[in-house]
Amino acid sequence: MSDGVVVRVLSGRGSRAADREALVAFVADVTDTAATRVRVVRRCPHCGAADHGRPAAVADGHDLGVSLSRTTGVLALAVGPGPDMIGVDVERPSRVAAAELDAFTPGERERAARSGSAAVHRTACWAVKEAVLKRDGRGLRVDPTAVDAVLDHGMLDHTLLDHLDLHHGASEPARHTARLDGLVHPVTVLRLDDDLVLAVAAGGVPVTVQDRRETLVTDRRSLHRGVVLSPGERPRPSGGGVVR
Domain span at residue 63? Predict the structure, then answer.
């Protein structure tokens, strides 16, 4: 597989067992490995139990970081080229608006109010929090307000397809970050359609997104198959300097 993270967005399969099967098939496809030689395991970093916790994969003896996320009608899967942890989250603005989440920092609320769509911006902030905390390993054991998502709302004013049209098919490096525990984490955030936002926390490595939803059609092009984005630099201290 490539040196970056691959994310695949699928139409939701409706059960956790089916999602797990989809993750195994995805890892096998991306790594060009027989599905029988792929194992997906879970391990809780706190209690050591194997029936919950963040997932990891082993493909033909090689450890790989994986992540998955579900929302209404959609499943997002992610796999990295090595054992480093990654986090993915997918969410719908309609769901976040209905939930009235009390999980945003004052800065996030202010930036959302100044954006072209407060609902989309808040949803992107929530997806970033989930992705970063999945990669961190603690998940929602951490108060979501401990993560401060600083997003370029101009990149979220258009869906990905409209953005590619505006820029003649070229993608731009993401300009989104999240602050957690004194570190600034680069993140990839995409508005896949009017009611779907994707966030990926991968430590600054390039991210390839493959949108394979069955209903994804437009009057300008057939299925959008993939776009590669780089979130930029590696995580760094919020006060400057380099993480080693």
Answer: 5-237
Domains in the chain: how many in total?
Answer: 1
Q: What does pLDDT average to in each consecutive run of 10 residues of the chain (244 residues)? A: 88 85 96 96 77 86 95 96 93 93 94 92 96 92 96 80 47 75 94 95 92 63 50 59 32
Sequence-separated contacts (24+) of 45-53 with Cβ below 8 Å: 45/137, 45/138, 46/141
Q: Are 208 and 227 in contact (CB under 8 A)?
A: yes
| CA–CA distance, 141 with 26 (Å, rounded to integer) | 28
Whether residue 244 is contained in a domain is answered as no
Residue at 110 is within a domain: yes
Q: What pTM does this model have?
A: 0.85
Within a domain: residue 243? no
Indicate which CATH number applies to the domain containing 29.
3.90.470.20
Phi, psi of 186 (to 5 degrees): -70, 140
Give the closest residue to 120 by CA, choosing from 199, 180, 62. 199
Question: In the numeric block, which tokens belong to residue 17?
Answer: 């067992």
End-to-end CA distance of the chain: 26
